[in-house]
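User: Predict the structure for this protein chain, please.
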Amino acid sequence: MTSDGAGADSFDPAPARLTVGIVSAGRVGSALGVALERAGHVVFGVSAISDASVHRARTRLPDSEILPVEDVVARSELLLLAVPDAELAGLVRGMAAAGVLRPGTIVAHTSGANGVGVLAPLAALGALPLAIHPAMTFTGHDEDVARLGNACFGITAADDIGYAIAQSLVIEMGGEPVRVAEENRTLYHAALAHGSNHLVTVIVDAVAALRQALAGPGLLGQQLVDEQPNGLAERLLAPLASAALDNALRRGQAALTGPVARGDTEAVAAHLHALQAVDSRLAAGYRAMSLRTAERARTNPALIELLEGRP
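Assistant: Here is the predicted structure, written as structure tokens:
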């Protein structure tokens, strides 16, 4: 492709209007399909097996056909593989064995844990392999597409041309491309899982403990505490947790506060006792996170000994 005034041999990395096929129409695949269509590409077909995937395909991508995987592969200029990490290698091997992929097809997967090495069987058939992972959680609802506008995408490619194409695709979808080396994909994925998945566990555990702490009669007009999400415990925790996350991202280590950071052995010991009475697993999680916090804060050695369980 050339632009006005450019030499005939100049390279424009921006992909032209592409015919896109998606395997499969899950939460990620359907959201990226909408984003690609908004950028001017044509999602002609998707594979969808479960009832939920079929519903997403029909509602999010109503102009796309629901097709067998082989048909999606054979007709794609850009083939997007949006399957779980554990299924990707087997899917790629099956596609290579089917022999329907056209040389020159851009094949991009959305797995965070994998780079382009997993696409080697298709690259050997002439595909251009890309890893394009949106660093975002997907719920299957309308907010997924909107959130892509604030998301970074970890991209990995086999060469500079691949990186240029991946970068252009991400920018077209409204995201920010970030280069991740092939050998660092596992570390990249582990860091994201630790910072997002484990955050959910910490919050849900904290909410469970708060529900116990708030049980019983409340103030006049106070909402009763129950097991339903978005209740009183969540509202109590939300401003504190939001501020802590914001402070951590803005100020790093300096955001650490609380009894562990202060080295308050007596308070932490009381916390462990109270949590143990509610749920020993919750207490174990608090102990593990407190130990890591104490190590980061380089706090009172006596507190570290307590958290390590040393006499």
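Strands lie at 19-23, 42-47, 65-66, 78-81, 106-109, 128-134, 152-157, 176-179.
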